[in-house]
Structure formats: structure tokens, C-alpha cells
Amino acid sequence: MPTSPYLTAMRPAYGTGTLADVMPTALAALGIPTRGVNLRSSELAGVRRVAVLLLDGFGFHLLGQAAQASATVGAMHHGELGTLTPITATVPSSTPISLASLACGLPPGEHGIIGFTVRVPDTGDLVTHIRWEGAPDPETWQPEPTCFEQADAGGVVCTIVSNGTFRDTGLTRAIYRGADWLPAIAPHEVAEGTLAALARGDRSLVYAYLPDVDTAGHFHGIGSPQWLEAVAKVAEAIDGILTGLPRDAALLVTADHGMVNITDRLHVDRRPDLLTDVEAVAGDGRMRYLYAAPGAVEDVRQAWAEAVGDRAEVIDKDEAIDRGWFGPKVTESSRDRIGDLVVACRDTFAIVGVEGEPPHVARLIGHHGGLTAAEMAVPLWSYRNG
């Protein structure tokens, strides 16, 4: 049984408030008709400039601990500054899926970036969306118009403020089309870049990204001194933006997912029996996709169910889709990318030691991708100057 309410399962709130609704909220404020739910219609009415700051790994249920490191975060958490509400990540609750949902304003079932790693149906190759080395073609793999393309078509100047290393990656080509790129790495650089980008044009949309909290959580764990230091660093970016925020602008702060500290692991590389009739293992440590050999789905399900016991649930792709994990609509191309079986980890359990993944991944402390409230609930904090 879960030891904390934060470890209970949480359904993605499609239609009422997920990451797929954050950019549509910003676009609506800027007068751009778009899909999705407007989560701040009255508060943002009349603004001409919107900055969306995404803090990787900064889950809603981590804010209490994070408040120890920053007075600004504490004020956010206690309702003393701006407006804070919880929304949910999409599924799986991992970075590329969440970033695509935010940037495209769509659930994963529609944009198709539906796993950290998935098998390409036509070739059988695996694509890791963060690295995206080679095929498939990003514009074909994710053909839906991005929110930046929609905003640009409506006369809004769009800018990405993030590490320049990501500028020409496949993931960028897939989800950030329609925006210019302003390289920035350190939190103070991100703050300065965000303010500079907000000043562009008559109406502007800025998306800024900082990975520090996620990195610290992976390697050192939630609540560690290194994690608190990372929180303090990214809070400097919030402070910097607020200090110079134009009077006709608003700031939205959110996250792509939360995180749990892992205490129990199944090492696939130590269980070769689990690879019988399995053509590929994909996904990530908290939600694995299993691609079974033809006719072997039930045998693979039974083997994995026995191995994980009550630490995870093993279901087929149709059941995962029917539960609405990937959104109310799942295209045929997206359906084909999901594993024949989905292994959703519970509590603080992870499945590691998968071929092709860097060895250090099996040793990471913080993980995400699962369905617990600790991973799924993310903040939407808004502040409007003036």
C-alpha cells in the first residue's frame, strides 16, 4: 500500500487542466484562437506579452520542500504572491512527452511523442525523443501545428529562451517550430533573455526552460542539499523576471512533471528470462513499453506480471488507451508507437537496466514517468504585473 497520498495514482485531467492547456491559455490572452482550455481567462484579459517559464521536475507536491530554499517559492506556495493552482502532466509524465504537450497544446495521443523512447513502426528502430539521433523525420513524426506556429500566424512574436545546444535537435524541430531561439543557460541569463524577448513586437510570447531541479533530483534525490540549491538557483530566474516584468505582461510558471525517490528496482539486465519473446523494451523507468513477438503478448504479460507483482501494473495498449491515459483521442500513428504492453510502476519502484540506456540511469535516485500524484501534479502559477 502507498505510504503517502502523493503516491496514489492520479488521472491526467484532460479537458479541465493539463500541460496541454498552458500554451492555449497564453495564446487566448494574446487574442489567438486555439484549441485547449483557457485556465486564466479573467486574470490574463488584456495582456499583450506572456512569458511561460518551465522548471523541469518542479512538481506541485514538491513546493512545500522547495519553499525552504526560496522566499519567492514560499510566497507562491502559501498563496501570498500570484495565483497558484495544480494541473496535471500528460502521460507518461516524462520530459519529451510533457514538452510536446505544452508546445503543441495537444495530448500525447494526438501529437504522437508518446514515450520517452518508442519503437518506430516502419523500421523497428528505437527513437529516444530527447536525443533524436537520425530517423524519423521530426516534421513528419509530429506534423501538428505548434502553438508557436499558430501565434506567429496571428502576428505574435515568439521566442524560445533555452540552452543553445538544443536549438537544432529533432525534438526542437518537432515541437518548437514557429519560434526564434535565444540561447541562455544560467538562471540569470534565462531571466535576462526572457525580459528581452518579451519586449519584441507589439505582442510577444516567450517560452523559457531551466533543467536544474530535475537534474539535481535525478542524481541526488528530492530534498537533498543539492536539490535545494537547484531550487534556489531557478528561483533567481523567477525573481529576475518579476523585477523587470512589463506592465502589459504576465508570467506563467509550470513544470513538466514531478518526481519520486526510488527505493526498489527491477534490473532487466539481470533477468534475461524477461526478454523471451520481447523484441524491444522502451519507455522509461517508471512506465515501460514492451514490444512482443507476434502471438506472444499473453506469455510476455504473464512473465512480467509475475516479476513485478504488486509493484507495477501490466496492461495491454488497448486498455491503457481506453483508460484515457494518452488523451481522449489517440491517432492510429500514435497507437502504433505504444508498446503491446504497458508496465506502469507504483509507489517507489522502477524498471532499469534496459539495453541501450546509459548505465548511470539504473543508479538514478529520482525518477518520473509514472502515474502517482507526486509525478503527475504540476503547478500553474501566474503573476500579472499591474
Summarize the structure.
This protein is of the alpha/beta class and 386 residues long.
Give a description of the structure.
- The chain has 15 helices and 17 strands.
- The protein is globular.
- Helix content is 31%, strand content 22%.
- By secondary structure, the protein is of the alpha/beta class.
- The chain has a seven-stranded mixed β-sheet with strand order 2-17-8-1-7-5-6, with helices on both faces. Strands 11-12-14-13 form a four-stranded antiparallel β-sheet. Strands 3-4 form a two-stranded antiparallel sheet.
- It folds into two domains: 5-261 and 372-384, Alkaline Phosphatase, subunit A (3-Layer(aba) Sandwich); 264-366, Gyrase A, domain 2 (2-Layer Sandwich).
- Helix 10 packs antiparallel against helix 11.
- The model has no long low-confidence stretch (mean pLDDT 96).
Present the secondary structure layout.
Elements: H1 22-29, E1 49-55, H2 63-66, H3 71-77, E2 83-88, H4 95-104, H5 108-111, E3 117-119, E4 126-128, H6 138-141, H7 147-153, E5 157-162, H8 170-175, E6 180-183, H9 187-198, E7 204-210, H10 212-220, H11 225-244, E8 249-254, E9 260-261, E10 264-267, E11 278-284, E12 287-292, H12 297-308, E13 312-316, H13 317-322, H14 332-337, E14 341-345, E15 349-352, E16 366-367, H15 373-376, E17 377-384
Helix pairs in contact: 9-11, 10-11
Organism: Glycomyces lechevalierae
GO molecular function: hydrolase activity
Pfam family, one: Phosphodiest
